[in-house]
Amino acid sequence: xxxxxxxxxxxxxQDGDRAxxxxxxxxxxxxxxxxxxxxxxxxxxxxxxxxxxxxxxxSGGHQPLHAPDGDAVLTxxxxxxxxxxxxxxxxxxxxxxxxxxxxxxxxxxxxxxxLDFVHFLRGEFAFALHDARKDRLILVRxxxxxxxxxxxxxxDRVHWGSEVKSxxxxxxxxxxxxxxxxxxxxxxxxVPGTTAFEGIEQVxxxxxxxxxxxxxxxxxxDLQWWDMDFPAAEEHRHGxxxxxxxxxxxxxxIDAVRVRLEADVPVGCYLSGGIDxxxxxxxxxxxxxxxxxxxxxxxxxxxxxxxAIAREMAASVGADHEVMELKAEDLYGESYVTTVRHAERxxxxxxxxxxxxxxxxxxxxGYKSVVTGEGSDELFGGYPFFKRDHFLHGxxxxxxxxxxxxxxxxxxxxxxxxxxxxxxxxxQLVGFTPSWIQPWILTLExxxxxxxxxxxxxxxxxxxxxxxxGTLDPGRLAGRHPLDRSQYTWIKTxxxxxxLTWGGDRVDMANSMESRPAFLDHRLADFxxxxxxxxxxxxxxxxxxxxxxxxxxxxxxxxERQKFAFMAPPSHTDPRKRAAVEKIIHERLSPERxxxxxxxxxxxxxxxxxxxxxxxxxxxxxxxxxxxxxxVLGLQILHQELVEGGSPAPVA
Length: 652
What we know:
A 6-stranded antiparallel sheet has the order 2-3-1-9-8-10. A 6-stranded antiparallel sheet has the order 4-5-6-7-11-12, covered by helices on one side. Helix content is 40%, strand content 16%. Strand 14 (293-299), helix 8 and strand 15 (320-326) form a beta-alpha-beta unit. It has 27 helices and 19 strands. The chain is α+β, with helices and mostly antiparallel strands.
C-alpha cells in the first residue's frame, strides 16, 4: 500500500511544476513512509510521484516502475494477489522482471493484453500507467473502490492522486468546498464519483479513465470494466443448492484469506465481536504458522461494546489479543480533527476516530497490514435494512418484518428509521425507496435549513437524493430481486463512500497501515451475487449461508447472534462526551468561523445547537441531531484545515 500522485500537461512542464510535485508527494508521506520516487519528463509534460509502504519485496520494488522497453511507467497503490502465479506464466511467455514486487505484473499484463489487462488483476488497487508509445495515460481503480483515486480534469492537463490533499498543491487546482457536495454530506450520502471539493472527482470503483493526448487537448474516456451484476430474479430459482452455496462460500473465502496473508511482513487481524472479523481470525489461524495478532476496540458504553465476544473468539483460537479501550476524550478533541482531515469528508459517527486510534496502535506494535471483515454485510445481506427490504418487498409478508431492528435498536435514526420515507427518484428506479437511505432523507430535512441564505438560494433547485439515484445504472436493477436491488444500491453508494473511506483506507493509511478486506475478493463476490436470496436471509436469519459456512469456525454465541453494527457511542449517550464535543464546538463553530467558511448561517446553527443541548434520552431525534452536528463540524473542519489551512496552488 502506497500513495500515488501526478499531473500531465498538454505542453512541456513549466517552472515550478517539479516543486509542486514534491509538495504533492510530501502530502502523502503518511501513506508511504518507507521511501518515495518520481518520474519527471519535462518534454512530455509528465510528472508522476509515489510514496512507498513496503509490504512485498522490501529491498526492491521501488516505484515508479518502468517497462523493459522504457515506453511505459507505472505507479501503484495497493496489492495484486496471486502475483507469483501471474509472474510464472508471464516468464514462460518471455517476460523479464526487474523486481520481485507484485506491482510489476501490471506492466507485463498490459503489454500482452492491452486494456483487458485489468481483468487479470486480483486485489485492492488504484494505479496510474503512462504509455508513451500510444501517448495515453490510464487511471484504474479496483472493483469495489477499496483504494482511493482522485482526479482534476482540464482540457490542457490532468491531475491525479491517492488523496485530495495531494492535488491541492498542483498548479491551477481549485481549493474550495463544493456546495452541492456539502449538502449531500449533511444528509450523509455522497453522490458517487464526487468529493467534498470543487472540481475534484473520483475515479469510480470498477472504472478506468483512458486519457488520450491529442493536439487540441486531452480526450478522456470513462470505461467501466467491472460491476456487481446480480442475475435476473427468475434465475435465482435455478441457482445452486444450499449445500453447494455453503461449500463454495467456504472454499472461496478460505482462498481470499489465504492470499491476503501473503506478505514479507507480519499480517494481523482486526477483531470486533461480529461474525465477519471473527471469521477472518478463525480462517487466518490455521493458515499461519504462528498465533495471529488480533486487535480489538472496546468502548466505555455497554450497549456499544463487543470486546467480551472478541475475547472469547481470540481465546478459542489462541490468538495474541490486544484490546484498546477508548473513552470520550479519545473520540473527540484533536483526534476528531485529525480523522476529518485524513478522511477528507465528514462522518456521522466517531467509529472512524476509533479506527484511527486502532491503526495507530497497530503500527506502533510493528504491524503494517491487517485482514478485516468489511464487505460481508454487502455480499450476504447482513444489515437490518436489507432484511427489512427483503421482508417488505421480496417476501411480500409484512408480518415477517417484526423485530427487524433487534439488537440494532440503539442505532435507530442511522441504521434503520422508525419513520418511513420515500423519494420518487428511487421509487421509479428501484421500485421502492431502499430502507438504507430513508433515515438520511429524514436527516436532510433537519440539515438543509442550517445552510446560509446565499447557499440555500444557490441550491434551491438541487435535489441531493435524486442526484444519488441518477448515478445508478437502471440496467443493473431492472428485473432483479428486491434484495439484490437493495444491496446493489448500497454497494454503489455507501460501501465505497462510507465503509471503505472514513471507516477503512483513509483512517488506516493515516497511520501507514494497510487493511485487506478479504470478503471483497472479486472471486468470492462473483459467486455471492448468484446466491439465492433465501440462503442469504433464511427464516429471518441474516447471512445464513455465511454462518453455515463458518459453523465450525465460530463460537456458538456468534453463530446464533443477530447482526450488530459496529459503531461508537454517540455524544448524547454520555455527559463526558457532550462536554468533549462542546470544546470542539467552541473552537470550530464560533459565529466568526462560520461566517468565514460561508456554508452555514451562524444564527441557524446556534438555534440547532440549543436543540441539540436539550436532547435527552436515546431516541431517534437525539440520534439524528448528533449525526447532523458531526457533519456540520466536519464541513467546518474541512474548510479550516484544507481550504484556509493551505495556500492555493498558483494558476498556470
